[in-house]
Write a structure and sequence with these properties.
Blueprint: H1 12-17, H2 21-29, H3 31-38, H4 48-61, H5 64-70, H6 83-96, H7 99-104, E1 108-117, E2 120-130, E3 134-141, E4 147-149, E5 153-155, H8 157-160, H9 163-174, E6 180-186, E7 194-198, H10 201-222, H11 235-239
Parallel strand pairs: 3-6
Antiparallel strand pairs: 1-2, 2-3, 4-5, 6-7
Helix pairs in contact: 2-3, 4-5, 4-6, 9-10
The structure holds zinc ion.
Zinc ion (ZN) binds next to helix 3 and helix 11.
Length: 252
Amino acid sequence: MSILTNENYFDTENQLKYFGSSQFKSFMKCEAATMAEINGEYEEPKSTALLVGSFVDAHFEGTLDIFRAKHPELFTKSGDLKSDYRQAEYIIQRIERDEMFMRYMSGKKQVIKTGELFGVPWKIKIDSYHEGKAIVDLKVMKDFEPIWVDGQGRIPFVEAWGYDIQAAIYQVIEGNNLPFFIAAATKQKPESDIAIMSIPQEDIDIAKSIIQAHIQRFDDVKKGLSEPIRCEKCDYCKRTKVLTEIVSYKEI
Ligand SMILES: [Zn+2]
């Protein structure tokens, strides 16, 4: 059995073997797209906004050199960082100016753990791990405003992005019921906002019950026992859509 490392963490073999926070949330959105991603048949395009976050992550992981080498598109022909990504440097500087933020980011970086939850194996990667004290996850986001979710209305961004789900998974797999904190910075211009946010235990417990309600179905899909359902809304479903009939405009 191979050991899980930063290098093989997202390999197909390990994506198939383990559930993870992002994978579970992806299954919640579209089973078909998630299976295509796991099998390497589809990759969601990486947006500029996403790469700004990844740049900040890489800085605090201490892996910025590797990140730069993997993403030459971040640089101009003369070798300077493109203006879109220079914002990432402002965000890093803003974070580094705050003593409390830096204290929360001073734990062990990118700590990988595996364990079992609701009968299936999971893997987690902790951004900043304060053993025996806290789990800290760094998030770089648009802003701290609530987000519109179809069927639910405007809800807190923590719930819209499933950070409560992530907190539940990390807390159980880490195994010591530690508090989960989000160390957050925004991509707002000209000034980035920062915060250290807690997620109340009662919200984490509700998130656990959501995981429990869906995990068996997703495990069956991963094992090929059930056909993945297409959401018919995401980019993957649009890309692979095959027309077979005429539909009334009222159904679209
Ligand atoms: Zn879909």
